[in-house]
Specification:
alpha+beta; 12 helices; binds 3,4-dihydroxyphenylalanine
């Protein structure tokens, strides 16, 4: 056994190339098989003189490790090549990126509104989506023959029952549940999903979201309502925003109003978003009707309050100038990705 034998094998190893797994196996047998070149050197090692055993022993073990490592390396590179040739795929190509989800525009707006009212001291309250007639209509002073109670407008879960279940048509039902549960003073906002039997179009959908507000205490006046809405509008749409209140009617508030904000696109000059009026309608509101307070066990002689309700899709449409409500429900990634960079609230 000679030093040159080891050096020769190392040199051959450097030149070694394999194109198939079969060639890799042949190379392994040639060096490490029972009659392989490295194995043969181990056999010869028995005859090496005692003084040389130490030196040769170490070199031989290293040689064996180097050969094994080289064979392993050749095998894995041939495997990658064979697999990619077989599947027609280049396995060295970088993989597909998994897009990270982002918040839905309606969620962004809901969180923004909740945060604004939280700063004003409001809590968040929630209620069930499947409701009864009492909480959606009766306790809110809807007369028996009110059209909202009609099947045309409301989805009933069970009919022909003396107390039918239905999908809530507005989040005002959470007002009632809150008044039943909480002691006065009450200051809550109630975000949630609502359902109406509407034909789906650019301006209407059968499922949408609202946020309801309710404030009840001693001595609450219409001036407080106006101020709360004004401060909210300025936080939401910018410090220059003005509001205007128009008389309206809701069974559960008296007096009632609809609120417009000054158009933050044309600043009152008139554009196609505000249809030339300079104003955009954002919510309905009013002083809680004494009948509604009494129905939930609140003394209307001692306490008064205001309530308001707005559609989240509508606010989101104004904020981002989206002109078709259906975009919010179709989950088209091209639309959703536009909101990826929306700031965290
Ligand atoms: N519930 C009304 C709707 O769905 C919105 C609303 C109007 C809520 C006036 C209120 C309010 O609390 O005072 O159209």
């Amino acid at each position: 056994m000679k030093r040159e034998d080891i050096d020769r094998i190392i040199a051959e190893l450097g030149e070694l190339k394999c194109r198939t797994l079969k060639e890799v196996e042949e190379a392994r047998v040639r060096f490490l098989g029972k009659k392989g070149e490295v194995t043969a050197l181990f056999d010869e090692f028995h005859d090496v003189s005692k003084e040389m055993k130490k030196e040769f022993g170490r070199s031989l073990n290293e040689l064996k490790k180097t050969v094994q490592a080289k064979i392993d390396e050749l095998r894995s590179s041939v495997e990658v090549e064979e697999a990619s040739a077989g599947s027609g795929t280049d396995l060295t190509m970088p993989g597909d990126e998994f897009g990270l989800g982002s918040r839905h525009p309606v969620s962004i707006v809901r969180q923004e509104i909740v945060e604004i009212f939280r700063k004003f001291g409001y809590d968040v309250a929630e209620g069930p989506e499947i409701e009864d007639d009492y909480h959606v209509f009766e306790a809110l002073n809807f007369p028996d023959n009110h059209p909202a109670r009609d099947m045309q407008d409301t989805f009933f879960v069970s009919t022909g029952h003396p107390n039918p279940l239905l999908l809530r048509t507005h989040t005002s039902s959470v007002q009632v549940r809150t008044m039943e549960k909480m002691d006065v003073p009450i200051r809550v906002v109630c975000p949630g999903r609502v359902f109406r039997n509407e034909a789906i179009s650019a301006r209407a959908h059968c499922i949408f979201h609202q946020i309801e507000g309710l404030y009840i205490d001693e001595g609450v006046t219409f001036a407080d309502l106006r101020q709360a809405i004004l401060l909210f509008a300025r936080e939401m749409f910018g410090p220059e925003t003005e509001i205007r209140m128009r008389p309206s009617y809701f069974p559960f508030t008296e007096p009632s109003a609809e609120v417009d904000v000054s158009c933050n696109i044309c600043h009152g000059k008139g554009c196609n978003i505000c249809k030339g009026t300079g104003w955009l309608e954002i919510l309905g509101c009013g002083m809680v009707d004494p009948n509604v307070l009494e129905a939930s066990g609140i003394d209307s002689k001692k306490y008064s309050g205001f309530a308001f309700g707005m559609g989240l899709e509508r606010i989101a449409m104004l904020k981002w100038r989206v002109n078709d409500l259906r975009h919010y429900f179709e989950n088209d990634l091209r639309f959703l990705k536009e909101f990826e960079a929306a700031p965290e609230v």
